[in-house]
Structures are given as C-alpha cells and as structure tokens.
Amino acid sequence: MSLASFVQQLPKVELHLHLEGAVSASTFADLAALNSVALPKPTAELYSYDNLPDFLKIYDLVCASIKSAADFSRVTFEALERCAVAGARYVELFFSPHAHLAHGVSYSTMLGGVLDGMRRAKEKYGIVCKLIPAHSRELGPERGEQFLDMVLAERMPDVIGIGLDYNEAPFPPAPYVKMYERARSEGLNVTAHAGESGPAENVADSIDLLGVRRIDHGYHVVDDPALIERCKEAGIVFTCCPSTTLATTVWRDLAAPGHAIRRMIEAGLNVTIHSDDPPMFATTLDREYALVMDNFALSPEALKKIALAGLEAAWLDNETKQAWMSEWSAEIDGLLKTELLPN
Asked: How many separate domains does the chain show?
C-alpha cells in the first residue's frame, strides 16, 4: 500500500471546516451566476489571496452566492462528499449565519438546507455531521447576543456548539464573555478561533475568559512558553490547518524548522489536523495529513495518534466515542501491518 493510500484510508474526523469555505470554485461560479452575484476574477483565479482580510472578501462573496435551501443543501452535500473521499467519518461543520442574513436569507432557510445536505451525505457515504454556527467577531458582542438568541430559538439536535471567527487580530475574545457563559449554560459546546493572526494573549483569553477547551488554529501559542505548558497540562486541543497558514499567518513555509504547527507538535501540545477551507486553499483533509507527515517527518504511527486525538476531541457522546476509538484503532493497526511504500 502506498503512503498516499494509507493516509486516505486512515479514519479521520474533521473538526475545523467552514461550510462556505468548502465550496468549490466551479460551484461558486454556478451559484453566483444563478443568484446574480458579480465575480471579481475568472473562475480559475477566484481562490487567490495573500492574507486573511483578502481571503475573507472572497469568502463573503461565496456567502452572498448561497441563497436558497437547495443551494445550502448542494454545498453541504458536496463538502461532505469530499470529506468522505478524504477518509473523514465524522465532521463538525462551521457555518456563518450573519453572512447570509446580510443578504436576506433566513436562518431557517440556511438550517433546513444544510440539514438536508447532511442527510443526503449520510445516506450515500455514511458520514456523520454536526453543526457549529459561528459568530463573526467583527460584529461585536451585542450582535453576538442576538446571534445566540437566534441559534437557541431554532436549536436542532444536530447544532452542538458555537464558534467565534473572522478577522481576529483587531477583535480580541474578551468582549464575548457573556455570550459564551450563556451558550455554555444552555448546554452548547464552545470553541473559538484564536492565535491565527492574533497574539498568544488571544489564546489565553479564549481559554480563561470564554471557557473554551478547543482552540481553532492557535499558532501564536508558540510565542509564550508558559502558555504552552498551561495548555499541555489542561489538555487544550488545537485544531490546526497546515495549508491555511501559508496565506493567513506569518508562517509561510511548512518545511521550515520554525513553523508553528511543527513547534506545537514538538512541544507536546494536543494538535489535531484539519482542512479549514479546502477548495479555497487547493487541499483536502487527506492532503493536510500528508503535508504534516512529509514536512514534519512524522511516521504513520504519529498520524494514527493525531487521528485518534481528533476523535477524542470531538463533541460526541462518550459511548459512541469509545466505541469508535476502539474500532478505528483496530482498523488503523490493520493498515499499519501492510507494507507501506513511498508514493
């Protein structure tokens, strides 16, 4: 078996995937034409950017192009289909309600379409998906309370938590303490993007003030050795996305000894690997695993550890998690017993 085949067949979870960032360029162009959204570039050049704000401009255009329940069902199904092909068995999917509300799309329409796409993907591929609506930190805490009101008013069993995302550096986590306290009191899981373009302090505040135990990205934790030790002791999970770092962070070379994800793994932090916005960064979940294996000189056994750490970090009930942990571990051990040949 080739290493590429091993990586693809490795059972995985996807904990850091944005629905709107998982739309292929061709589907984006189709929906833009259908819904009268003007595009700034030819289809082949749409997904080209050099920093987080430029990326978010395109991301917002994708959001503007998804209007009907059928559109939401289509992009959800296609995103989960690609996850399944890449070896994902379980997905926790972020989506950005505010970006669709701004274009007159109701939350009910979004949710209905996404749930339909999830149902169709599960029927065809067996892939299980849960939802994490995320608030844009750029909109402020008052809008955040309104966002949470909306999520709670139409809460479905498949909506399992909330996130905090968009342009991080100018918008620290502290203003969202009340929103996060209320979300936790209502039984929602919580996570937050931190330490991607913002400082290590944002990671610390997300943990200390927002009460999260899972940090999305988190790369600037490497700037604070004391925080690294705190995160290790607390078992904080970092959902890292290698390809994204090449456009949205100061770490632009995965092969560099100082790349943040490499340093996080070497420091013993609880790092899991995910794809973030895969078509927008020309990647897939299995490719992200291959990138860290190749660039960080990780063994297949190390990839097993990362895959199972992702499952352990998932917001699943304990009975399901333990059953899958046993099944996946045995399945991966079976793959490891085969001769693994270079690609």
From this structure: 1
